[in-house]
Queue: 2 jobs
Job 1
Amino acid sequence: MRVDSGMAAVVPAWKLIELLNEGGIKMARDKTESELSEKDEGASVLDASKPDEFARFEDLTRNLVRVPKRELDEKRKDES
């Protein structure tokens, strides 16, 4: 009996990277990124030099945890 696994083929990751970095595909990707950058002032292009959303969330969480309890209690009293 044949069982359908839902997959047509398994391709190693290095082969996919090789494919994505081929000349024609890389040129098309670079052109699209350039067009998006000009159109949206860089908003649509991933910029690894800027902190990512998760890092910003971690920083915010750390800052919230460091707030002294007395300060929080006073804010809660003011809100009541």
Job 2
Amino acid sequence: MLNQADINKIKEIAKSFFEKTSFDLNLEFLNPEDETVFIKIKTEEPKVLIGQNGQTLTDIQRLLKAIIKKQMDGEFYIDIDVNDYKKKKTDYLREMAKESADEVILTGREKKLFPMSSYERRIIHMALSERSGIAVESVGQEPDRRIVIRPL
């Protein structure tokens, strides 16, 4: 669990990191949960920070964590969301998972979803973890790893 000094240090480093960019943005730090510090960013230029399929956002998150890790001990995670991109993506993936599971149960045929990142596949797995009548697994190798939903 992060203590208040750790949280303050993470906020200070994150603010400094983003001040050094040329982006006009607004940072908001949400209440940490366990070892995760949530940073919401609002900006007029979200595409530049998000990148294709969220790859730039993932890279920024990874880079910021590496910078912070050099300056403090302990285990922590950074979760950055730009203009609610991750929230919208998560809602979309959950809905797609539900609809795909319904289709598999209705037709009795397996359904292969499009290739996804591990983060996206995890959302699908979690969304369908309590669902009966189906089996969900990840198959293939990166970058073509995907979810397959099968009837039981």
